[in-house]
Design a protein that fits this description.
The complex is a heterodimer of chains A (about 200) and B (about 120). Chain A has about 200 residues and is mainly β. Chain A is about 15% helix and about 50% strand. Classes of the chains: A mainly beta (about 200), B alpha+beta (about 120).
Chain lengths: ~200, ~120
């Protein structure tokens, strides 16, 4: 009797160790809320048009991710950056981006990606980190228009340091978000599609 | 400046303006023929992060690039060429008009009195 009780206790203790090893400080449902480290996160956007290749950045990324370590596919969140933080190297062009013909920053100050879930999640664990590749499914809100979109994403997590790195890559069409620009510019001087990739760091308590 | 010298002066000035316009064009081509003037340029910074990976990050760094279209107004090739080229053409046109007017005036005053 005593022996079986001892075995039971040992088993329960081992199971507890197994299920909690490597996990971050999380809620009981396994969800951790990551907060974007705005001081070191940025996105880069590229517009390839016949007349010109425009490259720009924004270094004011903000947002949160509700990361579910046990069920990564249910991860959700929201990432955004202000339109007036977009820099292309030409202040006149940066100003045009905020105008009504373009992204209309006065009414729609932010570009936002609302993450609804992750698909095709693949995980690789090494010594002190966990790496994921997945497709992030959600919506992009730009110029006041929300459209479904998908981003390919690489996520690296350092559980012991409460640090995650998110690298999304996404493309969206200006026309899908009613961005017309000045007459004839979209398609000639500004690409019809914009490629965006990000380097985003996030931490949690 | 006498009237007879004015066309010549205007021609020289107009020619100089056109030379400046061409010099601006040549400078723009020599500096890379960038479409738009920029004061910042995208630079890729490579840094190793806490994951031990070398990550590339795009940042805008201060660097002036002379372009065809301006950033602040006249800091580009197109407006400068327009100003100097236009001024040069106007001066040459005025010089030619002045010159032809003076020739006509000379022809009129050269005819002796009384002759048909």
């Amino acid at each position: 009797m005593k022996r079986s009780a001892l075995l039971t206790v040992l088993f329960a203790f081992s199971a507890t160790l197994f299920f909690t090893a490597g996990s971050s400080a999380v809620a009981d449902d396994g969800v951790t809320v990551w907060t974007v480290d705005e001081s070191r996160s940025s996105i880069r956007f590229v517009s390839d048009a016949p007349a010109e290749r425009i490259v720009g950045t924004s270094e004011e990324i903000s947002g949160t991710v509700r990361w579910n370590e046990t069920r990564p596919s249910t991860t959700s969140g929201k990432l955004s950056f202000p339109v007036d933080s977009m820099r292309t190297g030409n202040s006149l062009r940066d100003r045009h981006l905020t105008e009504e013909d373009w992204l209309h920053a006065e009414e729609n100050p932010d570009v936002t990606f609302n993450l609804e879930k992750l698909e095709d999640v693949r995980r690789a664990r090494s010594e002190n980190r966990v790496d994921y590749r997945a497709t992030a499914v959600g919506t992009v809100e730009l110029n006041g228009v929300k459209k479904p979109n998908k981003a390919s994403v690489e996520i690296a997590v350092l559980p012991e340091r409460n640090l995650a790195r998110i690298q999304p890559t996404i493309q969206f069409r200006l026309a899908d978000h009613n961005v017309k620009g000045a007459d004839g510019v979209v398609g000639s001087e500004v690409g019809k599609t914009i490629d965006v990739d990000g380097l985003i760091y996030a931490t949690w308590e | 400046m006498s009237q007879s010298n004015l066309p010549k002066t205007l021609t020289i000035a107009g020619g100089a303006c056109l030379v400046v316009a061409l010099a601006v064009l040549a400078t723009w081509v020599a500096l890379g023929a960038h479409p738009i003037t920029q004061y910042q340029v995208e630079t890729i910074v490579v840094e190793e992060d806490e994951f031990g990976d070398e990550m590339e990050r795009a940042v805008m760094q201060d660097e002036f690039r002379f372009g065809l279209l301006p950033d602040k107004g006249y800091d580009a090739a197109a407006p400068l060429m327009a100003v100097f080229g236009g001024l040069g053409l106007v001066l040459l046109f005025v010089a030619r008009r002045k010159s032809s007017n003076e020739e006509q005036a000379d022809d009129t005053s050269a005819a002796p009195d009384g002759e048909p």
